[in-house]
Amino acid sequence: MQVKKVVVASTNPVKVKAALAGLQRMFPDEIFEAEPISVPSGVADQPMTDEETLQGAYNRVKNARAAIAGADFYIGLEGGVAPMLGELATFAWIVVCSENKTGKARSGTFFLPKQVTELVAQGVELGTANDQIFSQVNSKQKGGAVGILTDGVLDRKELYEQAVLLALVPFKTQGLY
Q: Does residue 13 have a known ligand-binding role?
């Protein structure tokens, strides 16, 4: 069986694991090998809107394709925040591209505690804000905000993996997209 090459537009191990796990779940008879690459998102380090976050995921895929040719899949994962109803919500956008198809999906959304929201409003990136408030180190490469706030019941990999699965729908249901 031929190994499918997947370029993940991030070197964050959580994002790489989520991308591979989603592909493996959707296509259990295939073998995937990830090639992580750090590429710019072209948006703020902390995207502050739904649109900016989606654009960051698209830009990461575009930049990964420009850097490494010939992969079967390119996956961009971008975490972001957006104000909603006077609070700050957080989520991620996932974009998956092949030679001739694109899928995209947004993760589940949850609201951040007031202390974290205040730091992000001051320009602090969400991962750094979480580390400060919850006395963590590099939480975005571990369970993320969702892992901290659920005490590990749900972690960032699982949250992103579900969105990867949804972004793969056009690849699973051939002929409809």
A: yes
Dump pLDDT digits (tens) for 70-109. Answer: 999 999 999 999 999 999 999 999 999 999 999 999 999 9
Domain boundaries, the chain: 3-107+155-172
Name the CATH code of domain 3-107+155-172 (choices 2.70.70.10, 3.10.20.30, 3.40.50.300, 3.90.950.10): 3.90.950.10
Does 169 carry a binding-site annotation?
A: no
- Answer yes or no: is 150 a known binding residue: no
Q: Known binder of ligand: residue 15?
A: yes
Average pLDDT over every residue of 55-76: 98
3 is annotated as contributing to ligand binding: no
Q: Is 11 annotated as a binding residue?
A: yes
Best CA proximity match to 74, nearest among 39, 25, 113 = 39
Q: Where are the beta strands (DSSP E) in the chain?
A: 3-8, 31-36, 73-84, 87-97, 102-106, 110-111
Task: Scan for tokens 């993760």, then name that residue.
Answer: 107
Report, as an integer, the average pLDDT of 133-150: 90
pTM surpassing 0.85? yes
